[in-house]
Design brief:
Elements lengths: L1 H32 L18 H47 L1 H8 L4 H18 L18 E3 L4 E2 L10 E2 L4 H19 L17 E9 L3 E9 L5 E9 L5 E9 L5 E7 L3 H19 L2 E8 L4 H15 L4 E6 L5 H11 L6 E4 L4 E3 L1 H9 L6 E10 L2 H4 L9 H4 L7 E3 L7 E4 H7 L12 H10 L4 E12 L12 H15 L2 H8 L1 H17 L1
Parallel strand pairs: 8-9, 8-11, 9-10, 13-16
Antiparallel strand pairs: 1-2, 1-4, 2-3, 4-5, 5-6, 6-7, 11-15, 12-16, 13-14
Helix pairs in contact: 1-2, 6-7
GO cellular component, one term: Golgi cisterna membrane
Organism: Erythrocercus mccallii
Keywords: Coiled coil, Glycoprotein, Golgi apparatus, Membrane, Metal-binding, Signal-anchor, Transferase, Transmembrane, Transmembrane helix
Length: about 525
C-alpha cells in the first residue's frame, strides 16, 4: 500500500520529467541543424593556387561526409530518446489504469486531512525502512554507508575528491543551511516542555552543541545524530533526527550519562620501546589527566625490550598515581589479533568499552567521549576513520625546524589523509566482541585480522558507525619493504610507502626538484645580466 502511495506521489514529477526530455530533444535538434557562423567556416584554398579546383572538391567532399555522419548520429540519438519516452509514457498509463481510485484519493484536495495522514504515514515508513533503530545485515565491508561528522564551524568528510578538503567550513549554502536547520531544530526540541517534569529547566543554545554525525541513504533520507552538553560533567544530551526527503522528524530524545563508562585501551606490542614511551606521554595527558575513566591493557610478545616497556609503564603509574593497568606477557610470535583477543578476554570486571589501539596512534580526550557515545551494547559498534599523518620531514622540509608533535596534528590536505581503508582502531563493548566470536586467531603478524572482525559486525544486526573523527591520528613512521618480498609484493609495498609519505603535490615537487632548481638557477643568471 505504501509503495502505491509513494509511486502515485511521484507521478506528477515523472510527467514533468517527460516534458523536459521532449523539450531537450527539440533544442538539441535545432542547435544541430543551425548553420555555422562566418567565423566557423572552413578555410578555403587561395584563388591563385594551381590546385584550386581539386582543393575545393576535396574540402566539399570531406564537409559533406562529416555532415552525413553527424546527421546519422543525431537521428540515432533522437530515435533512442523517442523509444525511451514512449516506454515511460506506456508505463505511466499502465499505472494510472491500475490505480485510478488511489490516484483520485491522493489528488483530492477536498479531503486534506486524509491526504496529510497518508503523507505522514509514508514519511514514517521511510524512517522504518532506513537504518535508524537497528543495523542491517550487509554483504561486504564496502556496503556500509559512512557517516560524516561536523561541529558548529567545520565539516569532516571522507569523499574529498580533488577540490574538497578533509576538514573544511560548509561553504556550500545548501549544506550550511541544512546543518544550521538541524542544529536549531535539535535545540528547539531540547527546550520544548516534555509535559512530565514541571521543574524549571536550563535553556539550551547552539553553544551547547558538541558534535554531530550524519549520513544519507539515497532512497530513504538523511540520518542525523547530535550530541549536546548535559546538565553535569560527563553527561550529554543526544538528539536523533531523520529527514525522509521531506520535513525533519524527531526520532529520539534521550539523556546519555557517561560518568561511569570505563574504556579499556588494549595495545598489542613487540619491541618498539621508544614508540611506547611516546604513546604513554599521550596516554598520560589525554587518558589519565583529562579523561580519568580509562584502563590500559598491554599485551607484550617475547622478552626483548620487555623490561624497558615495563619500566615505562611503572614510572607512569608512580608519577601519575595510576593503577588501572594490566601487563600480559606472551612467549610466542607476534600476532596483533591474538594480542587484542587475549587482552579483551582477560578483563574480569563489568561490561566495558574496548578500544583496540596501536602504539603509533595519538588520541584526544574528545575522541574518548566519541568512543563512548557511538557504542551501545547489543546495538552499536564504532569504527572511526583516523587521520593519517604524512612524513613531517617532507611536509616541513622548507621550514627552519619541524614543529612539535601537537602542532603537527592538524587536519589539512597538505598534512595527511583520512585512512578510510583501515579498520584496526575500533570501539565496542566487550559483550559484543565476545558474542561476535572475537578475532580469527589463525592470522599471524599484521594485517587481515581487523577486516575479518569488521566483516563479522557488518554481517550481524549491529549498527556499524563509520565516520572520520578529528581526535584520532596515525603518526607517521617509516615503512620497511623487506628484501624477501616477491617483486609484486615489493612493488605494492613501495606504492603504500609513497602514499603515506606525502600528498600528490608534495611528491610531485620531489620528482621535479631538479627541474625546479635548474629554473631558479637560470632566473638568477638572467637577473644578473640585466
Amino acid at each position: 500500500m505504501m509503495f502505491r502511495r509513494g509511486f502515485i506521489l511521484f507521478l506528477p514529477r515523472l510527467v514533468g520529467l517527460l516534458v523536459v526530455a521532449c523539450c531537450s530533444v527539440s533544442i538539441v535538434y535545432m542547435l544541430a541543424c543551425t548553420p555555422k557562423g562566418d567565423n566557423q567556416q572552413l578555410a578555403l584554398p587561395r584563388v591563385h593556387s594551381p590546385t584550386v579546383k581539386e582543393g575545393y572538391e576535396a574540402i566539399l567532399q570531406e564537409r559533406e561526409e562529416q555532415q552525413r555522419n553527424y546527421i546519422i548520429s543525431l537521428k540515432k540519438q533522437i530515435a533512442q530518446l523517442k523509444a525511451e519516452l514512449q516506454g515511460r509514457t506506456e508505463l505511466l498509463k499502465n499505472v494510472q489504469n491500475q490505480y485510478p481510485d488511489s490516484l483520485d484519493i491522493q489528488l483530492d484536495h477536498s479531503k486534506p486531512e486524509k491526504a496529510q495522514a497518508n503523507l505522514l504515514a509514508f514519511l514514517r515508513s521511510q524512517v522504518d525502512k532506513a537504518e535508524v533503530h537497528s543495523g542491517v545485515k550487509l554483504s561486504t565491508e564496502y556496503a556500509a554507508v559512512p557517516f560524516e561528522s561536523f561541529t558548529l564551524q567545520k565539516v569532516y568528510q571522507l569523499e574529498t575528491g580533488l577540490t574538497r578538503h578533509p576538514e573544511e567550513k560548509p561553504v556550500r549554502k545548501d549544506k550550511r543551511d541544512e546543518l544550521i536547520e538541524v542544529i536549531e531544530l535539535a535545540v528547539g526540541s531540547l527546550n520544548k516542555p516534555d509535559g512530565v517534569n514541571k521543574a524549571k529547566r536550563r535553556e539550551y543554545t547552539a553553544s551547547d552543541f558538541v558534535e554531530g554525525i550524519y549520513r544519507t541513504e539515497k532512497n530513504k533520507g538523511t540520518l542525523y545524530e547530535l550530541t549536546f552538553k548535559g546538565d553535569a560533567k560527563h553527561q550529554f544530551k543526544k538528539i536523533v533526527l531523520f529527514r525522509p526527503f521531506g520535513p525533519v522528524m524527531k526520532v529520539k530524545n534521550e539523556n546519555v550519562n557517561m560518568a561511569d563508562t570505563l574504556i579499556n585501551v588494549i595495545v598489542p606490542l613487540a619491541k618498539r620501546a621508544s614508540k611506547f614511551r611516546q604513546f604513554m606521554q599521550n596516554f598520560r595527558e589525554m587518558g589519565i589527566q583529562q579523561d580519568g575513566r580509562i584502563h590500559l591493557t598491554v599485551v607484550y610478545f617475547g622478552k626483548e625490550q620487555m623490561n624497558e616497556v615495563k619500566s615505562i609503564l611503572e614510572n607512569t603509574s608512580k608519577s601519575a598515581n595510576f593503577k588501572n593497568f594490566t601487563f600480559i606477557q606472551l612467549n610466542e610470535e607476534f600476532s596483533r589479533g591474538k594480542g587484542l583477543d587475549v587482552g579483551a578476554r582477560f578483563w574480569k570486571g563489568n561490561n566495558v568499552v574496548l578500544f583496540f589501539c596501536d602504539v603509533d596512534i595519538y588520541f584526544t580526550a574528545e575522541f574518548l567521549n566519541s568512543c563512548r557515545l557511538n557504542t551501545q551494547p547489543g546495538k552499536k559498534v564504532f569504527y572511526p576513520v583516523l587521520f593519517s599523518q604524512y612524513n613531517p620531514s617532507i611536509i616541513y622540509g622548507h621550514h627552519d625546524s619541524i614543529p612539535s608533535l601537537e602542532q603537527q596534528l592538524i587536519i589539512k590536505k597538505e598534512t595527511g589523509f583520512w585512512r578510510d581503508f583501515g579498520f584496526g582502531m575500533t570501539c565496542q563493548y566487550r559483550s559484543d566482541f565476545i558474542n561476535i566470536g572475537g578475532f580469527d586467531l589463525d592470522i599471524k603478524g599484521w594485517g587481515g585480522e581487523d577486516v575479518h572482525l569488521y566483516r563479522k559486525y557488518l554481517h550481524s544486526n549491529l549498527m556499524v558507525i563509520r565516520t572520520p573523527v578529528r581526535g584520532l591520528f596515525h603518526l607517521w613512521h617509516e615503512k620497511q619493504c623487506l628484501d624477501e618480498l616477491t617483486p609484486e609484493q615489493y612493488k605494492m609495498c613501495m606504492q603504500s610507502k609513497a602514499m603515506n609519505e606525502a600528498s600528490h603535490g608534495q611528491l610531485g615537487m620531489l620528482v621535479f626538484k631538479q627541474e625546479i632548481e635548474t629554473h631558479l638557477h637560470r632566473q638568477k643568471l638572467s637577473s644578473k645580466k640585466t
